[in-house]
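User: My collaborator sent over this chain with a note saying "see what the structure looks like." That's all I know about it. Can you take a look?
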Amino acid sequence: MTKREIIEELLARRQKFTHRESETIVNAMFDAMANSLACGERIEVRGFGSFAVKQRRARQGRNPKTGQLVRVDAKQIPFFRAGKELRIEVNGAEEAGR
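Assistant: Without extra context I'll predict from the sequence alone. Here is the result:
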């Protein structure tokens, strides 16, 4: 699903919004999420999952073309962990029995 499809879904569910208003709402939501993650905050959406930032340590990597050792700097990466309800929805009833 793309951002455009999310906007169209919002329009279908809330017909009182214009396309521009729906686009503004979706953009504001994603901007707020990105800003929170950039500040190192955790985002939790009940029934869906949580977003967090994980630290990756510096390490030695290899250039796949030459095989030469390359230093890979430490960095932060966004991480998503699906909630229980989302996992059950995706996997069907088989997960619910666990």
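A starting point for your reply to your collaborator: Helices lie at 3-13, 19-38, 84-91, 93-96.
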